[in-house]
Design a protein that fits this description.
Oligomer: single chain
Structural class: mainly beta
Order of helices and strands: HEEEEEEEEEEEEEEEEEEEEEEEEEEEE
CATH class: Mainly Beta
Strand content: 35-45%
Strand order of the largest sheet: 1-28-27-26
Low-confidence stretches: 1-29, 260-277
Helix content: under 10%
Radius of gyration: 20 Å
Largest sheet: 4 strands, antiparallel
């Protein structure tokens, strides 16, 4: 049973967070690479296959490490992916011993397969709240419509979840919800301490796909009205938000122009493949009043790429460092060149962004990168990604690099886990490990999560895609 956030719980959480920050190392990066403590498979499909879902597939993971106890981690993913969108349910896995042993489950009450009302679920995101609760945001929808955004809560560190609450529900096919993202305010100095922010894209049949947000101040039971981050005529996608230490919240998202008339149909395309010429930018807006009003857009990056041809992947991600206050966005560059590097930009206030810095060895012939993710803690910046060598085009190796110079330079990467064989990957408009992968960091722990496909254990099976994670000590 879910219980209200008591004042004592808030105070305890604040003191725990402050103690953790006070114990953080100096901002100069420690010598040497992060130490790999654990790496391996943490889960496989956990729901019965339904209809035409691709059996034995997990896809599109996210992961979060508790800011109060770095031994607690929770990961989420699509559970039996449909090629036409979404999954039978949302998978989750949790560890309370720093990644040595993982347990897995499936979110209750989301889809019809697990006692819910919707056909499918998608786009899972996980975050820890100010009281230590775990929140998972999921897109839910029927094959046609309606759509919604659901939030599930755990009060036992991700071991069990209650039934979801709808933060958003569209009763009409004229409004289609997409690409949710959830962040929490865990900053004791914030006037909105404890608030949960739920972002999503609202596709409008008359044209436009603005970024919108609602928030909850009671652990996700009740939600505010919807607030737009800009014009309803903008074509936007992929909100990535960070709560600064004073409670200001910055959201970065993809921007592809504006609708030119009421009759223009909805649409947003981030093209995949070298030199695709997408013309898509990343912009940032900041709110100083808890999400009600937003600044004008600041450009983070121009001409953002969608990753290699033949692989559906590679939405940009953004994260911040609560020790330094700095935030970092990563994305795939978009030519010209035989292969496009991962790039990063940083900001201290969300309104002024640095020139892009190349994270990976740039434009190396025959080398491509997928699903770059970023996390930052105690002055160190981490970027993970999949590395694909076109000499073996179906093979993707997960790697992680780091910076002790605020993202100005990056160390040679380390490889994590076994290579993935895309021959056996999920398929959704191309091979589909997911539109994004997960990466989370605290001063004491770094945790990436990604999907690995491999030869199926069952003869004649087509798919075999599981979830991997690593635990590293900075």
């Amino acid at each position: 049973m879910q219980h209200p956030l008591r004042a004592a719980t808030v105070a305890a959480a604040a003191l725990t967070l402050l103690a953790g920050l006070g114990a953080a190392p100096a901002l100069a990066a420690p010598p040497g690479p992060p130490a790999v403590l654990h790496v391996g498979q943490i889960g496989k499909q956990n729901v019965g296959s339904h209809g035409s879902c691709e059996p034995d597939t997990l896809a599109e993971p996210d992961i979060a490490v508790s800011p109060f106890n770095s031994k607690i981690e929770v990961a989420v993913a699509h559970d039996c992916r449909f090629a036409t969108g979404g999954a039978v349910d949302i998978f989750y896995a949790w560890t309370h011993d720093g990644g040595a042993v993982w347990h897995q489950g499936r979110l209750p009450g989301l889809t019809k397969a697990v006692g819910g009302r919707y056909d499918r679920a998608s786009d899972p995101v996980v975050a820890f709240g100010a009281d230590g609760s775990v929140y998972v945001s999921s897109l839910v929808f029927d094959v046609t419509c309606p759509t919604g955004v659901a939030v599930s809560r755990s009060t036992d560190g991700g071991a069990t979840f209650g039934r979801p609450v709808l933060a958003q529900h569209s009763n009409t096919c004229a409004v289609s919800d997409d690409k949710d993202w959830l962040v929490t305010d865990t900053q004791p100095g914030s006037p909105f301490f404890g608030r949960i922010y739920q972002f999503w894209t609202e596709f409008l049949a008359g044209g436009g796909s603005p970024q919108v947000v609602r928030w909850s101040d009671d652990q996700g039971r009740a939600w505010s009205a919807t607030h737009m981050l800009g014009s309803p005529k903008q074509f936007a996608q992929d909100s990535q938000a960070f709560v600064q230490r004073d409670g200001a919240i910055t959201d970065t998202y993809l921007f592809a122009g504006h609708a030119l008339g009421d009759g223009l149909r909805q649409g947003f395309i981030l093209r995949h493949g070298v030199n695709a010429g997408s013309g898509v930018s990343i912009v940032a807006r900041t709110s100083f009043d808890g999400g009600a009003r937003w600044t004008g857009p600041a450009v983070v990056a121009r001409n953002v790429g969608g990753g290699p041809a033949g692989i559906r992947c590679c939405l940009p991600l953004m994260a911040g460092d609560h020790v330094t206050g700095r935030m970092f966005g990563v994305w795939n560059a978009n030519g010209p060149g035989a292969a496009d590097p991962v790039e990063i930009s940083s900001s201290a206030d969300g309104q002024h962004w640095s020139r892009p810095v190349q994270v990976t060895p740039g434009r190396s012939p025959g080398i491509q990168y997928i699903n770059a993710a970023v996390a930052a803690a105690a002055g160190r910046v981490y970027v993970s990604y999949g590395r694909r060598d076109l000499a073996r085009p179906n093979v993707v190796q997960q790697e992680l690099t780091w910076s002790g110079t605020g993202g100005a330079t990056f160390a040679p990467p380390i490889a994590l886990g076994p290579p993935s064989n895309l021959t056996y990957a999920a398929v959704a408009g191309g091979k589909f490990p997911g539109d994004y992968a997960g990466l989370s960091a605290t001063p004491a722990r770094v945790a990436p999560a990604w999907c690995v496909s491999a030869k199926p254990p069952r003869p004649a099976a087509v798919f075999h895609q599981t979830l991997y994670a690593a635990a590293l000590s900075p």
